[in-house]
Amino acid sequence: MSAQRDDKDVDKSANERADESADEGIVLTDAQKRARRSRSIALALALAALVVLFYVVTLVKGPAMLVRPL
Amino acid sequence: MALINGGADLRGPLTADRALASGAQSALIQPSLASGGDYLALLKPRVMSLVIFTALVGMAVAPGHVHPVIGFTAILCIAVGAGAAGALNMWYEADIDAKMIRTMKRPIPSGRVPRDEALAFGLTLAVGSVVTLGLMVNLLSAALLAFTIFFYAVVYTIWLKRFTPQNIVIGGAAGAFPPMIGWAAVTGDLSLEPLILFLIIFFWTPPHFWALALYRADDYARAGVPMLPVVAGEREARRQILLYTLVLVPLGLAPWALGYAGVVYGAVAAITGAAMLLIAWQIYRERSPADAACRKMFAFSILYLFLLFAVLLVERGWGGLLPWAAT
User: Containing H/E element for A26?
Assistant: First the structure.
């Protein structure tokens, strides 16, 4: 009986540790945060450039935007 | 992105049990360290710069006029398409890159970018660049760009590179297409002149890369890549370099001989072509290890191609500004 209770205690404490880990989530290191920020900035710049490009090309081509002869 | 691993979506409350059950422990311990620069490196910026340059020359020598914004869009799409092909190449060749000194620090073998992300990145850019070129410039240039990406990523990278010593001969076509795409972006069709530009790059590729392969033969052998010097021996590779250079030099003179370029181009092509022949002869005559002459050929061949296309650009593209360069 005593041994079974000990096992339950061990299991319980393992689950508690997992729950605590879940509460904390993933903690990024400074290097990982810097890398994520770098990726985010690159993605934002690329998307902004695409928006500007499509806008300017549409202005330049006007109605001819839909004319694409081979 | 780093939380999705092996098809297991780990978003939401995270427990140790879920993490272990998904087999994604390593992804949890090591979130991505890839920076924006690593994704830029996947695009092979140095190769991309050559593609941009040759495509620009193709556009500049083409008859007719293109709006600067449309011209910029075409060059941008060609550059991104070339980068996409480079990313797909690195995705497939990660195992080879890890074995070669020259490439082992690339983003995938160094562990900074996962292979799956490189594949998704390459495919996204490939589709995006082709569709944008088709929508904003014309369909012929978009079709040529799509074929170029397919040729480099599938025909060269997946099929030829690991199976035949003629890999860079046939695969070299992929690097030769950009001037044709640039020409097609302006004119909407093709003719003999862009074909000559294509042939110059096509026949330039074997001497350039076999010279590199000669002094990096051990590297290629270790990686199991059947480059000509590894498979057929150094002697045969040196002979082939000379033969391809003998074809390349007249082709370099062809734009002048056919009246597409002026006397300045003709003089530059003749002088640099003679230097190419001299170096190719030195490689042919040099006994193993053919190191010094090969390094010279690798470096000078880049200068040779750059000079030919730069003079064409000045003469045909900007010739009106330079009276002495008028054709």
Answer: none
